[in-house]
Amino acid sequence: MKALINRRYGDPSAVLELADLPRPSxxxxxxxxxxxxxxxxxxxxxxxxxxxxxxxxxxxxxxxPKHPVRGRxxxxxxxxxxxxxxxxxxxxxxxxxxxxxxxxxYTVAPVTWLARKPARLSFAEAAAVPVSGQTALAAIRAAGPxxxxxxxxxxxxxxxxxxxxxLAIAAGARVTAVCGxxxxxLMESLGVDRVIDYTRDEVDRDGPVHDxxxxxxxxxxxxxxxxxLTRTGRVLLAGGGHDAPGLLGGFTRQLRAPLLTTFxxxxxxxxxxxxxxxxxxxxxxxxxxxxxxxxxxxTFPLESGADAITHLAGGHPTGKTVITI
Length: 325
Ligand SMILES: NC(=O)c1ccc[n+]([C@@H]2O[C@H](COP(=O)([O-])OP(=O)(O)OC[C@H]3O[C@@H](n4cnc5c(N)ncnc54)[C@H](OP(=O)(O)O)[C@@H]3O)[C@@H](O)[C@H]2O)c1
Known about the structure:
Blueprint: E1 2-5, H1 12-15, E2 17-20, E3 30-40, H2 42-49, E4 73-81, E5 93-97, E6 106-110, E7 114-116, H3 123-127, H4 130-143, E8 150-154, H5 159-170, E9 174-179, H6 184-190, E10 194-197, E11 210-215, H7 222-227, E12 229-237, H8 251-262, E13 267-270, H9 277-289, E14 296-301, H10 305-313, E15 320-324
Parallel strand pairs: 8-9, 8-11, 9-10, 11-12, 12-13, 14-15
Antiparallel strand pairs: 1-2, 3-4, 3-6, 3-15, 4-5, 5-7
Helix pairs in contact: 4-5
């Protein structure tokens, strides 16, 4: 089978290559999937470049990637089930995540990280959902009740942002989207209350009016976020700065968050997405109800996977970047 691999860390265009590999076999609790589409997220960039260096100590491979095939999100069709799999069968259309690489014609994934693909989505649209959608879902849950409350989302036009905006609006929030100049029309089409173009205005433009801030862009200083937040509001840190220098890159920002909370009534806390069938099924329900629709900025064929990751690494993708296989 064809697969996009990197056997060493480095710049995507230098280290990624198309290879011919044997098909994997599903182990207990896993299924073999013919992958039709996969998406790109900053986590993939981290596993291609090996940056920030601390991530190499987290089991991904110190000198080189432990598993060579890249990609986490996927949508495709089950072709074989491993022992003890009772919930899925060959022919089922699924979406979800895997840890053996989805930029390949075939991959294996645990059934507990998969759900049936929503019928109204194409494979490309479904592949756009899992990592960013589940992170956005975790953030909306951490936000608490949102009916009538004001929520600011930085990086609103990016991978996590486009899901978070829609989930927040569906939960009753009045959303302020912080994004670059090319994304105001998209944000308005999704139903946001206000748009802050960060090239013209700062996030504290309207004063301390936001009950919740979801920070996915990870680049505005904490004092500025505080000035946009009500006295008892909360800041949820989803990420950002993964490409910042240093051993931990931008992750220092998440590590500092609990310390800030100690000294203030305003709360800062990191949020992380989790792979789960239940989370995907919650997203499927919103998709079926029409309150959540994936936004795909660009699509690339598998052979151009390095270009897809370079596009994301440029820092200004619109919604999700998808690879078709
Ligand atoms: N916690 C978790 O479980 C989890 C899961 C996945 C990802 N992450 C992390 O979360 C971060 C965001 O991920 P993502 O997939 O949403 O990334 P993404 O798709 O690259 O989106 C980032 C967005 O930020 C916008 N942006 C850039 N500079 C900005 C600024 N100064 N102010 C506001 N927006 C700005 C970019 O476009 P414009 O400039 O054009 O608006 C882009 O749309 C990454 O660091 C990633 O590693 C965390």
